[in-house]
Design brief:
Blueprint: E1 17-23, E2 38-39, E3 45-60, E4 63-70, E5 74-77, E6 82-97, E7 109-110, H1 114-117, H2 120-127, H3 135-160, H4 165-178, H5 182-208, E8 227-231, E9 235-239
Antiparallel strand pairs: 1-6, 1-9, 2-7, 3-4, 3-5, 3-6, 8-9
Helix pairs in contact: 3-4
GO molecular function, one term: isomerase activity
Protein name: Mannose-6-phosphate isomerase-like protein (Cupin superfamily)
InterPro entries: RmlC-like_jellyroll, RmlC_Cupin_sf
């Protein structure tokens, strides 16, 4: 029995994405230091806290939450959950992202005000950063964060008052904004997460048949960050540019 090769070379376990974040220490309009609130449309994201302290603020159908973060803690959020990383003191996080390749291809929408979300060109201009990691990029990342916080605070205030209408409309606006990207996402999913799961199925079939030929291909891989200190959505981001597994965010 032949063992099909994965569609993407050497994926991380489960074809997840991996990066490291140091939360922004910029103070926002509400006096909170932290990142740019946003949601993902089809990907679950996990924070594994490796140092410092802080919190993640979330908006979801179960309301507003402020989840404390400290070294050793884990928090994760399912698609549609608005999340905002909050700096409490040298907060450092390893991020695990489902369906690697999809978030980098646009499966993340900032909580910009409704008028920005309604115009794809205006949204793209507000979300895009200049290349590099210099002062110009830092200033643009901070403006982007502030614009996302502006929209986020309106959503949070309404949700805390028992009105989920603005939050639900933001979700719908986000879905409309990315709808045309779904065919590309589907191909990335098929080549990544789906292919990895199907590969496991083929390996189980091989074991059951007593022909574990895939074990003859056992090997190990290694990687190091290929960009340090990039400006991500939540903070300064160290990335691993593994082919087909983790790609730098577009425009960052």
């Amino acid at each position: 029995m032949s063992d099909p090769k994965p569609a993407l070379p050497h994926p991380l376990p489960g074809a997840v994405g991996l990066s490291h974040l140091s939360a922004y220490d910029w103070e926002a309009a509400d006096g909170v230091c932290g990142g740019s609130p946003h949601l993902h449309l089809v990907c679950t994201e996990a924070y594994v806290v490796t140092g410092g302290r802080g919190a993640v603020q979330t908006l979801s159908p179960d309301g507003y939450r402020n989840i404390p973060l400290a070294a050793g803690s884990i928090a994760w959020f399912t698609p549609g959950t608005v999340h905002r990383m909050v700096q409490g003191g040298d907060l450092r996080i390893t991020v695990l992202m489902q369906n690697s390749g999809l978030p980098e291809a646009g499966d993340a929408v900032f909580t910009f005000p409704p008028e920005v979300l309604a115009d794809p060109e205006e949204y793209a201009a507000a979300a895009k950063l200049p290349p590099g990691t210099g002062p110009e990029t830092a200033a643009a990342a901070r403006r982007r964060r502030d614009l996302a916080v502006e929209g986020y605070l309106v959503l949070r205030e309404a949700l805390e008052a028992g009105d989920n209408g603005p939050y639900l409309e933001f979700q719908r606006a986000a879905a409309r904004l990315v709808r045309d990207k779904v065919p590309i996402w589907r191909e990335l999913w098929r080549a990544g997460a789906l292919a990895t799961a199907e590969r496991t199925g083929a390996q189980l079939d091989a074991l059951e048949a007593g022909e574990p030929v895939h074990l003859g291909e056992a090997t190990a891989h290694e990687a190091a960050p290929t960009r340090l200190g990039g400006f991500g959505m939540c903070g300064r981001r160290d990335e691993y540019n593994l082919p087909g597994t983790t790609l730098p965010y577009q425009g960052e």
